[in-house]
Amino acid sequence: MRISLDYFISFLMLIASGLYLSGITPLSPIYFIFGIAIIFYCFKLLLHFEIHMNGLAFFNLFICVVSIFVQLIVIPNTRVPNTIGLALPYLFYFICFQSLNTLTKKEIMNLCAYMLSAHVILFSIDAIIRLTNPTLYASNAYSGHTRETGLAYMFKYNSIMYPDSNYVGVHACLTYFFTVYLVKENLLVAWAKNLKPVLFVLVILSTSRSAIITLIFYHLIFNKISFPFQLNKKQIFWLSGIVVFLIISSVFILSLIKNDESFNSKFMILYLAIDFLKSIPMSSIFFGIGIGNTFSFIGIGAHNLLVSLTLETGLIGLSLFILSMYFSIKKTNGKALYVLFPLFTMGFSFVSLALPFLFTFLAIIYVVENNKLNETTSISST
Questions:
Q1: Residue 45: helix, strand or coil by DSSP?
Q2: For residue range 152-163, what is the model confidence (pLDDT) as tens digits?
Q3: N or C: which end of the chain has fewer CB within 10 A?
């Protein structure tokens, strides 16, 4: 089979999107592979200058440029690696769109299968290493404070991918729900559909409570509804029952975790963030205090997606991120919610701003959903 340059670039991008090994090396393979993909993309432009016009792709490229400018020029003392972590996902979206847009549906199905396989292998290795090397007491150099201790945390550390397994949980959970989308839309080759239950188990093995709760909740929800929402009386009754169950069970859950330091810290962070915003100049409110600087200012990491965006990227960064997510939902007829609902649910507990795999998923969903409506595009010619 003849492999096009766009196919090769897409393969590199999709494989690289989740290839973090920060527990082993300070410079993860994602950066090397992405660099190779950029070189080939530039080579493609030199051979045949062609940029596929798309408002959302260019909007994400615009956010990438703005993020770099604000973090490195406007805000003092922002580290370059943190800035790259913030800007990289938006650039991932742009390049993925440019390369995926020319491919056929079958090619994208194969690429998704390869990407999910790479994710499963990586999550499996990470789980084996973490679960066989429990850590009860350890200093967390990454966050600048002592790690939580006790049985609930003994399998969270020693991850080969991230500083702790909460990151792994977010990554694995979003990958699972992206797989749910692919299976529902019949966009996976037969053998790759078997990866869905494996990913379900791997989310649980991450031992991230927010990821596990999100996994179970949306697994039930997505089995009953589809996007865009078209709820009949039976579905409304079913969802109402879920809400009532959650309200009743929350009373018992809160009684169990009221003394949990990690759980209580989520509310403390909100209070600290609000108090901090009251005391900083307007320039910091608009532009932020810089990626990764929350701990230096309020004494604890943000551990919350909206708090991280508000404090570290300011109202400008927060607004641009929300607009990007809004347009993704609108332009995919709601299908982006397969990964965005879980993202924002876990975001209350813990989500990093470095999410190239999320933007890769969103780019794939966009290309597939929009090319369904246009029979002249390559992806429709299967």
A1: helix
A2: 567 888 899 998
A3: N
